[in-house]
Amino acid sequence: MTPVLKATGVSKAFGGLKAVSAVSIESHAGQILSIIGPNGAGKTTFFNCLSGIYPLDSGTVELGGGRIDGLAPHLVSRAGLSRSFQNIRLFPEMTALQNVQVGRFARSPRQILGTILRTRAWRDRERASLERSEELLAFVGLGDRADSWARALPYGLQRRLEVARALATDPKVLLLDEPGAGMNPQEIVDMMALVKSIARLGVAVVVIEHHMKLVMEISDRIVVLDHGEPIAEGSPDEIRRDPRVVEAYLGRSEEPHG
Amino acid sequence: MSLPKNIFGARAAILGGLAILTAPFLWTRLDPDFATGFVSLRLVPENGIQFLSVVVPAALVALAIAGLGRLWARYGSSKPLFETASHRLFESPRAMAATFAALAAAGFVMSGKALSLGTFVCIHMMLAIGLNVTIGFTGLLVLGYAAFYATGAYTFAIAAHALPVLPTWAALPLGFTVAAGVGFLVGLPCLRLRGDYLAIVTLGFAEALREILRNLSVTGGDMGLVVPMQARIKAIGPVGQGHASWIAAVGVTLLVALFVHRLYHSRIGRAWIAIREDETAAAMMGIPVVRLKLLAFTVSAGLAGTAGAFFAGFAGFVDPSTATFEQSVLILAMVILGGIGSLPGSILGAALLYLAPTLLRDWFPAISDYRLFFFGCILVAMMLFRPQGLCGSPRHKLELEGAS
Question: Residues A210, A212, A213, CA angle at the centre, nearest 5°?
């Protein structure tokens, strides 16, 4: 099966610090790929590289067969890659529904004249965008909070709203940066169920997550980064047994030899 | 208001201290006697009374704003009354037509002076609505907005001289197109950058444009240009020239407001707000940030041009004072007073800030010299008590209080 997203040898340095070096991943439709690693391992930087926020130093990113490295973020998004942010970046002074509708921007046609004259065609498309946005809100479980201000939503719901907004761009690949951060155990379980259901829609999901138990439960494959370098890749079971992963997380044992 | 009581106390102490310190200088005068070389201290009550006559109304306005702010904080919902009313108005063609008819008919009972004042208020409403598109919706600071106002005004005046057959209505499309084109060219280089480059560039552009207008012969230099009679707004039948101008002004203002309202409530408007709220996240949602900023600025400049061309057709002359920094600041103050990002706020702010100094001049001629001081007091009071403006969204307040 050909991967939807294929990143090859992605590297990014800030001055002398190699934040990401030669990371390659393949993400398949309907599967969940997790990227784990200690704090500062370069996971978020890697996401920023994939989504066009940082230009790459070297390496390529292909999406559905076409190159997306070097493209501006809005073109990456149009090509079919969407993401959420580690520190939630909603549009606070917009309602939940409007946040999702912003995600529909590139999927609704340009119609400046139609907008001003409010032609029938414009109204039809506006209604279609509205209906799709309401659907997505209901999908993430925010159907009854459509008119709440984004800033007024509880933290857990803000994370869900960010997922709905990302889905509104009709992505082939969805990057989720710590979707469970700051949530209570029940919210994390719900969020992971949501991530699974997104994968079932046929979206290739790439997740950065810290909660090991959940990563092991939902992932089809796992990539481990440490100091910007990939140190292991495999199924959850393989990763659990990998001594390098244990070392990266727990440190090397300092017992004297002999 | 969430300010603790002791801050109010400290404020009162500072104001009281200032009053005591300044009082001797305001109420007295030193009179040197050149023959003897002695200097005598003389009490001059007029100065003090004049000063008080400015400070007291200013303080009253400040208190009124503070009181309104408290009332709003206590009883205001997330959608203020005025915002909802304006939304209803612009969503209903029938209500628009009724408003237009009522205001146009009101012209029959308005004095010539009131009609002219009303027309100027409308012109400033167009300007405030236009500036709000960049500052309020898209979050881009523009400091030289009057430059596009002048562009529209001069464009129409020059075109009317060059083409004697030019009809009056042509002012609107002509002013819009040329000013929007100029805005596009000014915005093109600086909107690719993040931050407030646009503020500096437009400020410089306005100053440069004013000097150019003052020095070219085609623009009439310091004297400005007189717009030929045939291109001005004329009397039609029973409707006098002043009344015709008022009707046209109301109509154009409603159209401009409707235009902006419809853009705001569309994917374009949502994209503008998204850019204001979070540029990176907006780009990640597939929004071409640079192109939409440019669109906002172009539309904004075009609306200023429309207002300028209308002014030329109404007033019958244009001069370089249309491009002064004071004019830019006045429009900016209107947007801030009304509430950054709020369409009805811009309309309200323009009406208040244009009418206040004029009425002040008529009713309290003694204070009119202190107009700008009065202005300053009101703006300071706004910033202290209601930083989001009269109809502003709570968001800007949060930002200014560092809570978001």
Answer: 135
